[in-house]
Amino acid sequence: MENRGWLLKGIAAVFVVAALFVPAASASEQAHRPARIKLSTVPLRKTQLGGVASSLSLAHDSGVVPNPRAGTLNPLLWTSSTETFFSLDSTFLQSRGWVGGYTLDYGDAFSGCSCVTEIRTSVQQFKTAAGAKKILGWFRTDDAAVLRSDPELGFAVAHRLLKVPPMGTSRCAYFTRYRTLRANPVQMVDERFTDGRYLLQVEIASGTTNSQAALASKLAKKLDRQLRLALTGRLAATPVKLPATLTVGPPPDGPDLSTLVLQPSDLAPGTATTPGGSYVADPFALALSGYQLNYGPAGRYGELGQEIRWYRSANEAGFRSTYDQALSVALWKPFTGGTPITYVNLDTIGQGDRAAVLTLTLGNPIPGTTDYLAFIALSHGQATDVVQTESQSQISPSDLRTLAQSMVTRLDAGAAR
User: Contact at 8 Å (CB) between 185 and 208?
Assistant: First the structure.
């Protein structure tokens, strides 16, 4: 099964918004006169967000938007689109003149509360106004291709473009509502606009509250005013103290995740060697901790990849397990050649979950070969357990039910410690 490890890289990839009058030059005008501003002072502070943010804490993904090496994911480009997911490369931004960015993110979109659960504001700087507009156009196209509903997995998405008045040099806004079987619904308004060389974003999430659009527009005006004050040297603000950086290792409030993974005894005896698992960092700072491993061979499977993640709440873990599975299936669906996806009922393990099997006809790395790819995603409390398996022979529903039972036995026992 050599040369097939690339199939399992998808498991890691899955893991994944009228400016006020200022008697000075606009940001568009400033674009021709490069200004040195502290990007960290532009995103809105908690006191500027209003009473709805009083209970929201600063999230771990706040701070400087990282600039990873060429060929790696950049969190700025995180999206739920299936068509452009594989374009999430730092070189994509750099080729369009991206200079840097800064984000302040308050709250947790998936906490499960019916109220406003998250408010994120950010600023991205480019070398030219044209570069900023190109990236906004990319986001507009990408949002139109948002991840679709998958009823078989209990995943539903409602998505629409919002009408917003002109502001800055270009502007767009989208509304998205997600529903899953194991988590409360969450809805988001994502508004982005450019002003000269700068791309700004306001994103607001909530459970069932319907005031995000009006609040997003109000905060967008504040954010643009903040930028203009900074450009004219009249912004009296200092950077917000950020929360401690997440460390790679066991979660501070949870078990050793390495004890939750599958063992060789859970696979066919004598055919699976002990893998070299390791703790990993979530590039989007969503999970508090993560542990992953790969088996190859893996019993009756050619390869098996598993990742355990620990989230801030059980509601978020329930949402993420369903979302990650739906995204994995959507990403690989174009490689099935139209062959129907097989969905496997896992009700017998007591989770009300589903597994999915895809038949892939791949041109690379071995032309003309057929592979079978299966996904299982579970959750227990704050933990998610996602497994992806690959085989050159058909994967049966009974095989997946047996594997899922081993997963849930270890997950339930370990997560309850």
Answer: yes
Q: What's the pLDDT at 86? A: 41
Task: Return the structure tokens found at 261.
Answer: 């993974």
Whole-prediction pTM? 0.84
The first and second tokens of residue 320, run together, are: 């993420």
- Neighbouring CB atoms inside 10 A of 99's CB total 16
Structure tokens at 29: 């005008």
**What are 113-138's pLDDT values in tens digits?**
989 999 999 999 999 999 999 988 88
- Locate tokens 């049966």: which residue? 396
- Asked if residue 340 lies in contact with residue 357, where contact means CB atoms within 8 angstroms, the answer is no
C-beta contacts of 403-409 below 8 A and 24+ residues apart: 403/262, 403/266, 403/376, 404/346, 404/349, 404/351, 404/353, 404/355, 404/376, 404/378, 405/348, 405/349, 406/262, 406/266, 407/262, 407/376, 407/378, 408/349, 408/350, 408/351, 408/378, 408/380
The 10s digit of each residue's pLDDT in 194-232 is 999 999 999 999 988 777 889 999 999 999 999 999 999
Q: Mark out the alpha helices in 266-388 (DSSP H runs).
A: 314-332
Domains, the chain, in order of start with CATH, read: 10-231 (3.40.1000.70), 247-415 (3.40.1000.70)
**In this model, does residue 71 exceed pLDDT 60?**
no
C-beta of residue 309 within 8 angstroms of C-beta of residue 14: no
Instruction: For residue 386, give the nearest of 293, 252, 316, 277 by alpha carbon.
Output: 293
Cα 388 to Cα 88, 121, 239, 245, distances in angstroms: 21, 35, 42, 29
Residue type, 31: A
Which single residue is written with the structure tokens 């061979």?
297
Q: What is the pLDDT of residue 334?
A: 81
C-alpha 385/C-alpha 339 separation (Å) is 27
pLDDT for 338: 85
